[in-house]
Amino acid sequence: MDTRRKNISEESFNTNTQRLKTYLSKLVLFPVNKKRIQKGDASEAEQKLGVQDRSRFGRTVPHPSSVKLAKAPARKVSKAETEKSAYKFLKKNLSAARFMGQRMVRAKKHEDKAKAAADKKAKS
Description:
Blueprint (H helix, E strand, L loop, with lengths): L9 H17 L17 H6 L29 H5 L2 H13 L1 H24 L1
């Protein structure tokens, strides 16, 4: 158990809990030493029913997020899609997001100057 992990949502916590309970219900612990069976190890009858998985990582219950969803069928690329550059689009939006704060500050200063000029003109 990792004590550093935090569950953000109740839903994900419940799905993980259910997944682990299902895993533990299917788990058969083979004893390390057959002569000295420890607490929690499977009995001989359970060992005969269970098949030991000797693969490197084992076959666990898949996490819901790892289950692959049905993919959309293949389609032809339209002329509009070939003419547009995805790189330019992403680069432009990334730049806009990066400098958004500076542009807002500059616009506010410009707005304040215009307001001050209008007030000065109205007084005179």
